[in-house]
Amino acid sequence: MKSNIIAVLLLALLSISTLAQDYSRFSKAVFSYPKGRYHEISEELRTFLETELSNYKPIEVVEGDNLVQSKIEYIESTNGEVGETAFPKYFPVSMLKEMLYQNGMKLQGPAEDL
């Protein structure tokens, strides 16, 4: 089962990274979590959200009314369209950082800084 989860997460990462051909494509992102359940987000992810977001383009953290699980939405610069990735309670922060980097959300530094 753990290998199935890892495989699904890797496929999600690959599908998102193939979208990232233009680092100016997305102007901002919105990280949403289920209402009243911020404490259920992994400590690693909460720490990332509370300390490292200044290294990225604007990322809003909001409480969502009708969410079952957390998600991140990328807002396109040109037309405002939204690309979305939902993820389970435990989502490796290293994978989230890679997704943000691949989608052009990191402000500075090479991929090795991830």
Sequence stretches where pLDDT stays below 50 over 5 or more residues = 15-21
Structural class: alpha+beta
Radius of gyration: 14 Å
Number of strands: 4
Mean pLDDT, nearest integer? 78
Number of domains: 1
Strand content: 15-25%
Q: What's the total helix number?
A: 3
One letter per element, helices H and strands E, the order comes to: HEHEEEH
Sheet with the most strands? 4 strands, mixed
C-alpha termini separation: 27 Å
Helix content: 25-40%
CATH-defined topology: Glutaredoxin
Name given to the CATH architecture: 3-Layer(aba) Sandwich
What is the CATH C level class, in words?
Answer: Alpha Beta
Estimate the global geometry from the Cα principal axes.
globular
Strand order in the sheet with the most strands: 2-1-3-4
3D structure, described in words:
This protein has 114 residues and is of the alpha+beta class. The chain has a single domain, classed as Glutaredoxin (3-Layer(aba) Sandwich). It is 32% helix and 23% strand. It contains 3 helices and 4 strands, in the order H-E-H-E-E-E-H. A 4-stranded mixed β-sheet has the order 2-1-3-4, with no helix packed on it. It starts with a helix and ends in a 12-residue tail after the last helix. Keywords: Signal.
